[in-house]
């Protein structure tokens, strides 16, 4: 329990609930449950029972019921990937994403990728949006177009020099179609590879594969761009070497050529809800990638290169837990324009959200109103091709199996893989809500802070421990 000095600034309702929890008989168990979730901000509450029997004799080996828990519920981590919603679960998600991306770079037989993929050509590519109008930026050592040398944290960065002439409609429509642009890019990439290799598309597919793992990131101006690890594999995927013609230079040239070919047409739209009012119209548009396409080779970890396997995996994992809230918007749906003032959304993201709400009647199938808080973007933030590496589901299952094995060992239950010991588990669970009471929220925040502090200490001491181990 945190000392009482940190409780001085609590509001009366939270303080009263903290004192109630501290005086309750189940306080230690509540702490234990919250700690097991990592200090989750919005845990899932379940009620139910589980019974483990010997399948042969019917003898009850173990039984559990939430009726014995404080409040009659069991708390489970919410699993939200957004750091703005739940820092604890976002940390776990970032860790899983890191291992998923890294496994596709250095190889990990336990995760389904051989270590030989380190010899495969692979690049770190960044695809961005085009310009929708000049914005405040930091162009090297030169001043911004406004004549100011902006600091790194200047609030003006990414905002338009002239908001009235900025193409807000084009920006949100581009975000909304960004996943279509990526899909066409992956199609054209394979075609360009075959073309540059002097092969038919069928022959190129029979001799090689292209694997990728990508993450979406919001630029300061509110538009999406994609970071992707793109790798050449052999005909059998990561387990086979790529052909001699599948070089790093060919992959780089194919990426640039494919990005230049991509075009998504948005038809003109017309909407007039009131015959007495002028109709709202939008012209036809052709959406393309921006001119700033960055393709860098990924070098083996530790060889002194700027773009290393470790750096790429860490970079991708960092942005896997972030979304549009980094631009100043909110992380939940906005129903109308009036809510923008109540939520204190800055002017630039507010204009982007307003553009989504205004464009929704013209393009109802694009669901711009539903994704206005995401500035129009409606895709997954991290995706990968099937053969790139393992999956997030597989990583979560490994973690769940490990914890289950620990619990079985603590309870003295047999291993379910033991053919001689067969057990039958009957479980019944019911959703009972989510979230914390005010006092539990305060307790979870302190537990989460302590866990983070311990991780930082362990990270700082790890190099010294490894050095001592080498000296022994």
TrEMBL record:
Pfam family name, one: RepSA
Superkingdom to which the source organism belongs: Bacteria
Protein's recorded name: Replication initiation protein
